[in-house]
Every structure is written in C-alpha cells, then in structure tokens.
Amino acid sequence: xxxxxxxxxxxxxxxxxxxxxxxxxxxxxxxxxxxxxxxxxxxxxxxxxxxxxxxxxxxxxxxxxxxxxxxxxxxxxxxxxxxxxxxxxxxxxxxxxxxxxxxxxxxxxxxxxxxxxxxxxxxxxxxxxxxxxxxxxxxxxxxxxxxxxxxxxxxxxxxxxxxxxxxxxxxxxxxxxxxxxxxxxxxxxxxxxxxxxxxxxxxxxxxxxxxxxxxxxxxxxxxxxxxxxxxxxxxxxxxxxxxxxxxxxxxxxxxxxxxxxxxxxxxxxxxxxxxxxxxxxxxxxxxxxxxxxxxxxxxxxxxxxxxxxxxxxxxxxxxxxxxxxxxxxxxxxxxxxxxxxxxxxxxxxxxxxxxxxxxxxxxxxxxxxxxxxxxxxxxxxxxxxxxxxxxxxxxxxxxxxxxxxxxxxxxxxxxxxxxxxxxx
Amino acid sequence: xxxxxxxxxxxxxxxxxxxxxxxxxxxxxxxxxxxxxxxxxxxxxxxxxxxxxxxxxxxxxxxxxxxxxxxxxxxxxxxxxxxxxxxxxxxxxxxxxxxxxxxxxxxxxxxxxxxxxxxxxxxxxxxxxxxxxxxxxxxxxxxxxxxxxxxxxxxxxxxxxxxxxxxxxxxxxxxxxxxxxxxxxxxxxxxxxxxxxxxxxxxxxxxxxxxxxxxxxxxxxxxxxxxxxxxxxxxxxxxxxxxxxxxxxxxxxxxxxxxxxxxxxxxxxxxxxxxxxxxxxxxxxx
Lengths: 424, 286
Description:
The structure holds two protein chains of two kinds. By secondary structure, chain A is of the alpha/beta class. Chain A contains 14 helices and 17 strands. In chain A, a hairpin with a 2-residue loop joins strand 16 (390-397) and strand 17. Chain B is an all-alpha fold. Chain B has one domain (2-115, 141-277): ABC transporter involved in vitamin B12 uptake, BtuC (Orthogonal Bundle), CATH 1.10.3470. In chain B, 73% of the residues lie in helices and 3% in strands. Chain B has helices at 2-31, 38-55, 60-86, 92-113, 140-162, 164-174, 186-211, 219-233, 238-258, 263-277; strands spanning 129-132, 136-139. Chain B has a two-stranded antiparallel ribbon with strand order 1-2.
C-alpha cells in the first residue's frame, strides 16, 4: 500500500474530530461520559500461527475485568474499548485489518503480537498513518531492520519490546557449554527469514560459534514442510555431531527427531527454537520430548509481577491453566504485558485522543511488567526495549511436558529451577 | 554406502507420496476433476484417527479400519449430494467448490480441535527400525507406509481390472457420456469412485497422523507433491503413481545430499523435466 495523497491531511481531520468531540463533551458537562478510548489488537487467531493466539481470549477477559468502568486519565474516567482483528497468519491480511482499525474504527492505539508477519505490517501502517502502536513477540532485529528502521532516528509512532538474536546466541551457547561434548554442532536452519538470519556468517550463529570453539555442520537452508531429513542425519552422523540446534517449525522437527531415532542418531543436546517453545508440540513427541532444550522468554518462574492485576508470573500462569484447562505458554505473559504497557501509557498521556501525546507517553515508558522492565529509551536502537531471555529444558512429569529453567548467565535474577541434563 | 542409503530413504519417501497421490489420481482418472481439498481430506482423516485412538481409546489398527470406512461413506455421500451437481463440461465449478470445501474444513477443524499441533502416538513403532549393517537403517514406519502404498495400489489394480465395478469405472473414464446409454448411472459410478478414493485418502491420512505433527492448516502443502506424483507417473496409470512418488522421493533425497536447499527444488525439477520430455507422464495410457 503506497501513501495516498490525502494522508498528510488525515492528522488534521483527526484533530478536527477530536476537537469536535471535546467541544461536544464540554457542552453537556454534567451528563457526558468521557470519550471511550479504542485499542485495536491484531493477532493471528487462525492459520499456521494460531497457536500463538491461544491465550488471547483469556487475556482480553482479564484486561476487561481489570479495567472495569474505565481508566482515569487526567481526572476523567475513560471507558476502554478493545477491537480485535484476526490476521489469519498472513502479513497482507494483517496490513489490511490494521488499515480497517485505523480508518473505520479510528482506534487510538494499535497493538499487535506474534512473529514479523503480524507485527511488521501493523507497525508499518501505524507509522504511515500516524497512529501510536505497541508490538511484541518478534525478535527486535527482524522487526526494526525488517522495516528499514534507521538506528539514528528510529520511528515516530511505533514501539516494540522483545529479545534479539544476540540473546538467543548467548542462551544457546550457554546451554551447549553446560554439557560435556565434542563441540560439534549440527544446524537445522530453514530457508526463511529466521533461518537465514540465524545462519548469517557474521551476524548469526556461525561467527559466535567459531569464537567459542564450536565446529559447525551446516547442510544448507532447507525448505520448511519437508518430509525427509535423512540427508542431514547422515551428514550429522558422519561428522560426529553431538549438539543439534536450529529454528524449525513443529512438523519438521517431529519428522527430523523421529527419523533420527530410526537412524540411530542420538545427540546429547538438542535446542531447536519454534518447535520446542510450546508444550502442545512437546506433548506430541511423547517420551522423545524429554531433555530437549529451548530459549525461554517468559515462564511462571520469572520474578516479575503484573502491574495490571498485581499477580506474580506464577499466579498469572495458574489462573490461565485453571480458567482454560490448557498448559501455560510463553505468549501468555507477552499478550498480558502488551495491554499493561498500553494502559500505563494512557494513564500518563496528556490527551488520550491525541496520537502525538499518546506516542510521547509510550516513548517515555518505564514500567515493570509481567515480562520484566519495559523502557523504550534503554534499547539497542530507538523505539525498542529488550526483555530478558534464559534457557529451559523439557522434562516429562507423569507424561506431561514441564519446562525447567536451566540457563540464566545473562539474567541471574531469573532463578534456575533445575540442572541441565544430557539427553538420554 | 551413502548412495545406497539415499536411494532407500528416497524410495520409502516415494511410498508416502504415492499414498498421498493415489486418491487424487483415481478421482482425476474417472471424473476428470481435481480435488483441491484432497490435502484437507487427508488432514480430516488424521484427526478422525486422533479421536478414535485418544478419545475412544481404540487400537490404532482398529482406528484405521474405522476411519477408512467412515471416509469411504462420507466420500460416496459427498459426491452424490454435492460434487455431482457441479460436474459438467466446464472444469472450473468443481475446482471452486473443492477450494471452498478446503477452507470450510480448515476452519471447522480449527474450531473443533484448536490450532494445536497434534500427533497420534504409535507406541515405539514410529522410532523403531531394522538395522542393515552399521550404516543403513530402515524405519519400520516408513517401511510400512511403503508397503501400504503397494497394498493400496494392488487393491486398486484388482478392482479396476478384475471386477464389474472396475469395468464400469474404466468405461466411465473412457467416455462418461456413453456409459449411461448402457444402463449404468453416472451419479452412482462417480460416487463409488470418490468413495474408494476417500478410503485411500483415509489410509494416507492415518499414516501421516503417526508420522509427524499435523494441524488444521497443513493440508494444502500435501496437495502439491501428490499432484506432481500423479503427473510424473502419467494420468490414468495406477502403478505410475508409485513410480511418480518414488522418482519424486529419490530426486529430493539426491537434492538434499548436494545441499539441503535443493531438496524440494530437486523434486520440482524432476517434475519439470518429465513434463517437458513426456507431457502426459512416464506411463500414461495411450
């Protein structure tokens, strides 16, 4: 979507609308309810990314309950209206529902989560049309540089908080250091934005691995949704690989891990992002899930509290499991924190109906959320705030996958809950 | 040794592709229409097996038999009630209807089973293998998929060439307009063909359910390889489907050996080469 010629004047129109709304309110001060503040939320509720959206309904209910009648902004209680749109796991769709939220629903703040396919198009629309936007759950490099962000100037309206590639490298190598191996690592990096970034010779894993004395066996970028990994397995076997790493979708990892067992390939450490992030995917592996390790962005063990409900991470996870009957997942904390940050900014804004005032309030965020401190001044580049990343390992408890925290070198405030074990 | 291993694994993979392709080939052969929802039918069968094994607690083999029967019945009825109405000279309506079915099925599964990635536990069977020397191991699950493919194609061959129904199906494939003149009902024949194809789809889907994870949206990606296997093997030839699947599987295995990035591409290139040299496929009926 290119910038339409009338876009520059849109802000003027919005301001006019806001002014007329304000004057309307002034005309009948005794009876007037303050103008509702609209939050537009874009999330992949259907399609391949739908597993990220599983906590949506729970989080939305919880936020609505906490907000109740509304939020006090400058002495006036404003009701909060949340409009949810499904991205259908497609970046084109995410872009068009973001436009609907901006032009038809005229939301005051846009929110989006879960992978570059959702956060990038929504943030692009927000920046283009001058609507404040908060996103999370995409590593910051694909979000910032994927949108041609300039580290010198940043963005005017869009803010993002999550960890980055440097964190995952540090966590994964930390996990490898924890087990005695021959330091030969086999990589499963698919031909997609994640796989290419991770396998990038300088910015990705290969450079960091060489520095730390790990040998890399990389058979090339494979296509996702492949049915056969025997070429990779035989290459790993003949090179004596003892550590397997990668970023692979769940069906591909199951195919790989099942074939590895058939072919008698038994590495000591396996950490594969994406595939091992969700307990549902681990349950599908049965006994073979035991000992797999993964990066952890949020867990009930994180020593952070929600500023919205006052709950600890453990209490939030417990309430989720009780209310839905499903195991907690990492996106739960991030969905929750997204609304925490939006509501915090609204409480501090000078004028909740003015996009520039809201953007200024978000920019000066310094808030302790359930995923840790969010502060957009502190990031590696403007408009970005980094959240902590640690390493975890799956253990089977009565057939149920349980995630232990086993690596916290960069964030010792997040306690270890178990020792790293070798697989098998 | 590497080459031998590669050929074995590629061939076994070909069995899976042949299994995916057989139902598609049958429907195209008899009715000349491409079922866009083929991949989603496979996923539906996978979910049915999941319900049979995890919810009803049946043995996987009993589950497979049950799902196969259910799918055959559903296929027959679906063809009678829905698809027969859109079969005509124009090839577009059935394609559009099955495209719509594909979207409806994906969303219905999403509603019923959520987006969670599922798998049917196969005990230790999925990770078990036969060891042939130190270098080569054949997984029992891939092997049984390959044997299932041969079994399914064998049964189809027998139906086609040794039964009254087969004669009817072959006659309908040759000229659907003439068959009714001889007193047979096209609607019934078409529905029987779809019923048999759906039974084959059920076997493919239940095998997939044990092989790897599936979720409601995974179907369409299964359609492409099935389609290529049919085209490589040649339209209208039952055993051509197996040959097509094996060529695709081995091409992918060889591609992956050169570079993992070539794996899928090598399959597509094999498909293109066959299409360029023999547009009707390797073993097309004259």
